Amino acid sequence: MNGMSAEAIGRNFPAVVTLDDLAAMNEADQYGHRYELSPEGVLSVMPPPGTDHAVVASRLLLWLGMAGWPAEQVLQAVGIRIPGRDGDGGRIPDLTVWARPLPPTVWPGLAELLLVVEIVSPGSTTMDQIIKLREYAAAGIPRYWVVDRDPAQTVTQYVLTAHGAYETVAKTPLASLLQSEPAEHQLGA
């Protein structure tokens, strides 16, 4: 958007952002930002993840792969459709685990989703630990993990209760988690 004024951007911006608009914005961004939309229609622009963030995602991906999870079921940075009253929102978690491979789509529904993992980045603490925690619980996502930026890179594992809220079931340093086998109860398999 070099050389483009805020007025020009505002004039060309849709009055209501749809998931198709969101997909186009993500595809057009040359700098790796992630554009997300809450179920209430609030647009968020996330900065590109840094190398430390990518290393954590890669470690988790390899850990799951070495445990036998196929690449078609463990996806990085794939959009998910979050249902809302006034339309659907779209989030792009760092890692998702699915019950079976998905057909080609940009914003899959949640029916086959077992686990969402968010890795906290500078500036995303509130989004990952409060806002998405509520959104993902309200959407019925069975498991949610948040990898913190503390020295231990603590992985907080949540499971959805019968009351529709998340309950913390474990807080484990990432290094310890990666030394274990992914348990079926952790992933919902």
Helix/strand layout:
Elements: H1 6-12, H2 19-28, E1 34-37, E2 43-46, H3 51-66, E3 74-76, E4 80-82, E5 89-91, E6 95-98, E7 113-119, H4 125-139, E8 143-147, E9 154-160, E10 166-173, H5 174-178, H6 184-187
Parallel strand pairs: 7-8
Antiparallel strand pairs: 1-2, 3-6, 4-5, 6-7, 8-9, 9-10
Description:
The mean pLDDT is 90. The chain has helices at 6-12, 19-28, 51-66, 125-139, 174-178, 184-187, and strands at residues 34-37, 43-46, 74-76, 80-82, 89-91, 95-98, 113-119, 143-147, 154-160, 166-173. The longest helix is centred in the first third of the chain and has 16 residues, at 51-66. The relative contact order is 0.13. A hairpin with a 6-residue loop joins strand 8 (143-147) and strand 9. It has 189 residues and is α+β, with helices and mostly antiparallel strands. The chain has a single domain (49-187), classed as tt1808, chain A (Alpha-Beta Complex), CATH 3.90.1570.10. A six-stranded mixed β-sheet has the order 3-6-7-8-9-10, with helices on both faces. The chain has a two-stranded antiparallel sheet with strand order 1-2. A two-stranded antiparallel sheet has the order 4-5.
Specify the CATH class. Alpha Beta
- Could you tell me the strand content as a percent range? 25-35%
Strand/helix succession: HHEEHEEEEEHEEEHH
What is the H level of CATH, i.e. the homologous superfamily? Answer: tt1808, chain A
Major sheet details: 6 strands, mixed
- Which of globular, elongated, flat, extended, rod-shaped describes the shape? globular
Mean pLDDT: 90
